[in-house]
């Protein structure tokens, strides 16, 4: 992957820089000269100076433009698919903390979306691709449906609206333990083809969910009603089979080996944000934003270099994140680095630093520079 970067943070509010939390990092202010970017490197490209250029959250290029179009003399990547091949987009929607990300990860057989006990941890439309010899399903994991209270929420709900609009099928999720229908979220689905998917069925007897199902059937028609548990795998494969059957016939949108259209830096930022949620629990609210300032893939045995900034809204939150002597941030870096290395299958050098941006969630300039758009 080519190197990409954003401008380095100013020293006025970045706080102590905490390098990779491995055994060779002895001080929160040290950076290994052999692993840090060379000061003699070329001047940054437009992508390095324009915060919106090459943004990991922006809409991707048309796959046909990237992968070749037979009409323009290229070789299509889908030329060997069967005539009855099915493909389509599936939006996973519902209120916060109903298990959308957990279910998508289970259907894909690998982790692409953040999963924590905290609601509303998904902020962007995360795309996961499930492919087989005769099908390709593009899942859109969306933020939980809420009534917006500030501009970040508005941008997040814009992601939901776009996913619903683009989808061939909706998976409307409802936690089985919640006895009343979620009418507010259901309104966002409109009358598009939809499955009602009950999640966390391992927590209750199946017959206990029957009144809930009847209540939903009184509100609208669903093509399928599927009780599931991502924890024990109940009906996950059945749900995938039903989804494939509901997809229109057509060629795949992406090469079959792809599991997402997001670049690695997107998932690296998500891993760091997930570890922040897990490590600090209620001490740090949902104001945490992670930006990848630089991601340099290196040749040979050298570790890939990742420089990331964690943005918070208050100085008190910055102090909590860093901890005494930088120990808390170093622990966060260790946990994040281990997951990042497992994800990219390479050793990495992770450098973390903290910035304060008051009210960034309600300021259009910050939201745009961080990639949130309606």
Explained architecture:
With 374 residues, the protein is α/β, with parallel strands linked by helices. It folds into two domains: 12-55 and 262-369, GMP Synthetase, Chain A, domain 3 (2-Layer Sandwich), CATH 3.30.300.20; 86-246, Rossmann fold, CATH 3.40.50. It is 30% helix and 18% strand. It contains eleven helices and ten strands. It has helices at 46-49, 63-67, 100-108, 151-166, 183-189, 210-219, 236-246, 264-280, 315-322, 327-344, 364-369; strands at 4-5, 86-93, 126-132, 135-141, 169-175, 194-199, 224-227, 289-296, 304-312, 348-356. The strands form two sheets. It has a six-stranded mixed β-sheet, with helices on both faces. A four-stranded mixed β-sheet has the order 1-8-9-10. Strand 8 and strand 9 form a beta hairpin. Helix 8 packs antiparallel against helix 10 (327-344). The radius of gyration is 22 Å and the shape is globular. Residues 1-19, 21-75 and 114-124 have low confidence and may be disordered.
The separation of the N and C termini measures 28 Å
- By CATH reckoning, the class of the largest domain would read Alpha Beta
User: How would you spell out the order of helices and strands?
Assistant: EHHEHEEHEHEHEHHEEHHEH
**Outline, from the CA principal axes?**
globular
Low-confidence stretches: 1-19, 21-75, 114-124
Number of helices: 11
Q: Count the E strands.
A: 10
CATH fold assignment of the largest domain: Rossmann fold
> How many distinct folded domains?
2
The name of the CATH architecture of the largest domain is 3-Layer(aba) Sandwich
Strands side by side in the biggest sheet = 3-4-2-5-6-7
Main sheet summary:
6 strands, mixed
| Average predicted local confidence, pLDDT | 76
Structural class designation: alpha/beta
């Amino acid at each position: 992957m080519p190197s990409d970067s954003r401008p380095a943070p100013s020293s006025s509010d970045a706080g102590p820089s905490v390098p990779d939390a491995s055994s060779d990092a002895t001080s929160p202010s040290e950076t290994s000269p052999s692993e840090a970017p060379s000061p003699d490197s070329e001047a940054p490209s437009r992508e390095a100076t324009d915060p919106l250029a090459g943004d990991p959250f922006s809409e991707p290029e048309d796959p046909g433009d990237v992968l070749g179009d037979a009409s323009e003399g290229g070789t299509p990547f889908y030329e060997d698919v069967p005539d009855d091949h099915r493909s389509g987009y599936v939006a996973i929607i519902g209120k916060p903390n109903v298990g959308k990300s957990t279910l998508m990860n289970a259907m894909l057989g690998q982790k692409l979306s953040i999963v924590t006990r905290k609601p509303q941890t998904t902020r962007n439309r995360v795309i996961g691709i499930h492919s087989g010899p005769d099908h390709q399903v593009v899942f859109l994991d969306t933020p939980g449906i809420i009534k917006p209270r500030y501009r970040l929420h508005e941008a997040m709900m814009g992601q939901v609206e776009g996913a619903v609009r683009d989808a061939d099928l909706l998976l409307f999720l409802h936690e089985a333990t919640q006895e009343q229908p979620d009418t507010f979220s259901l309104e966002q689905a409109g009358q598009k083809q939809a499955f009602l998917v009950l999640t966390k069925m391992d927590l209750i007897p199946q017959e206990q969910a029957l009144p809930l199902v009847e209540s939903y059937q009184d509100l609208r028609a669903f093509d399928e009603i599927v009780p599931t548990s991502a924890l024990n795998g109940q009906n996950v494969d059945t749900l995938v089979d039903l989804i494939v059957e509901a997809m229109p016939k057509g060629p795949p949108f992406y090469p079959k080996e792809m599991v997402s259209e997001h670049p690695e830096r997107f998932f690296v930022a998500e891993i760091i944000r997930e570890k922040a949620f897990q490590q600090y629990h209620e001490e740090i609210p949902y104001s945490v934003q992670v930006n990848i300032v630089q991601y340099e893939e290196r040749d040979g045995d050298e570790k890939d270099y990742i420089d990331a900034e964690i943005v918070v809204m208050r100085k008190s939150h910055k102090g909590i994140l860093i901890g005494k002597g930088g120990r808390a941030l170093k622990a966060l870096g260790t946990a994040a680095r281990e997951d990042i290395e497992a994800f990219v299958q390479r050793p990495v050098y992770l450098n973390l630093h903290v910035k304060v941006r008051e009210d960034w969630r309600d300021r259009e300039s910050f939201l745009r520079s961080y990639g949130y758009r309606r």
